[in-house]
Amino acid sequence: KRKKSDVYAETLISPELAEKGGALDVETLDAVKTIEVEEGTLTGEELRLPGEGAAILWGKKRGDFIVKFAIVDK
After folding, report:
1. 45 in Cβ contact with 68 (< 8 Å)
2. Can you tell me the distance from the alpha carbon of 31 to that of 35, in angstroms, rounded to the nearest whole number?
3. Could you tell me the pTM of the whole model?
């Protein structure tokens, strides 16, 4: 989902990863980035990746890529 120059993506994570934290690969607009999920992450929490969103029309800057976590049982 896009809001102005920011891009929002929901990412499903396991209860174990949410509880203990750890590395997670996330596909952004340009590449796959490894992010760090914090210990005790809850459904609905967000992690902002500055400069990884859509291009801003009037310059060379880019918006942010916001990862929203959703915990799911597998």
Report:
1. yes
2. 12
3. 0.84
